[in-house]
Amino acid sequence: MGRQYSQTIDHCTTYFDEFELKTTFFVTNLWNPNWTGFKTASLNGHEIASHTLTHPSFATLTGTEILA
Fold first, then answer.
1. pLDDT digits over 40-68, tens only?
2. What is the pTM assigned to this prediction?
3. Cα-to-chain-centroid distance, residue 9
4. Cα–Cα distance between 46 and 68 in angstroms, integer?
């Protein structure tokens, strides 16, 4: 079985921090994120942002609708 989502943040930030790379993690609460891991990532200078739970499919929108 692959790495659980709750362990992914710790795994990823280990590498990002090693190479002094800062990143933005877009989080949705549907997959029960590792909030402790995200708090640690934030304290290490990474940005934690919210991803919408619902939005229309961009494939069904016109260019004007996407930009609105």
1. 999 999 999 987 777 778 888 899 988 87
2. 0.66
3. 9
4. 29
Contact between 27 and 38 under an 8 Å Cβ cutoff? The reply is yes
Find out whether 13 and 46 touch, Cβ atoms under 8 Å.
yes
CA distances from 53 to 29, 30, 35 (A): 8, 8, 17
Q: Pull the structure tokens for residue 63.
A: 């260019």
Q: At residue 33, what are phi and psi to the nearest 5 degrees?
A: -65, 160
SS (H, E, C) 20-45: CCCCEEEECHHHCCCHHHHHHHHHCC
Pair of tokens at residue 17:
């921090």
